[in-house]
Specification:
285 residues; alpha/beta; two-stranded antiparallel sheet; 6 helices
Length: 285
Amino acid sequence: MSLPPEIRLMVWLESCPGPRIVTHHSKHNRNMILLGVCRESRKIALLKYPQLLSPTQEFPNAVTPVLYVNRDTDVVVRDLTMYQPRSPAHPGRRIAGPSLFKMPEDQLNKACYRIFSGLSRVKHLALAFDLLRENGGILFGTVQACCPELRTLILFPSSQVGSRKHPKAANLKFFDLDSNLVDYIVSRWDTIGDRTLKRKALRGLATILTLLDHASQYLNVFPSYVTTHGHQWTPKIRVCLLARWIEPAEAWQTRLLDGDHYSRGFIVRVPRRLPPPLPLPLDLC
């Protein structure tokens, strides 16, 4: 506190976390060290990271978490998978309930407005659902009404989301699902020497190829919707895979593609010796 105010401001801003992928879980608030250093740092943190309500599917019967989000850089994740209430016998277990996309129109709108509560000023949103069997296009109108300032809309498989599965948000990244990504994964697949591992990796490659076909449909339909109904609402749509940085392998790994017809129940086992990476700027395994 003995430093000049200008230098103190530089120190506080340098201590802020970079762009993050933020889910419902309040664990993201633990990285906001500035909230507990002093009054000056807390004031700066609240200006840069305003509070954001994050209602879960138990809302309004449960306490609504509050997250600190930088609306300019952070990506807010909303999982569209509906869960049944937790049973007293198994309070820690969540059971998948009826699909959100099979609800009547009135129930669908009510559920969507609850899920998207507090996102009116969010600029980057990621929606997780079953891309292979559910039509996310019916949500465009609701997302437009709830998120008028949206700049980026990311769609990705719901099997990849989960607070316990991704402990560090800084180790997560979205990769666009396009032909360049598929070509790179195929080139990595060619370098695998173990036949058993190669056969297992082929299942994941088949899933990604199927998702690529669905991604092209979203990328073709969404611009037509924006032209017809969007007017001033023109976010960029992305269909992505959620990857996690694996420190021992020094690579980005796409995980948990197990919610589809092609690899449901398929267990991926990491070998003791990983194949040598290709001399490319980005490694995906």
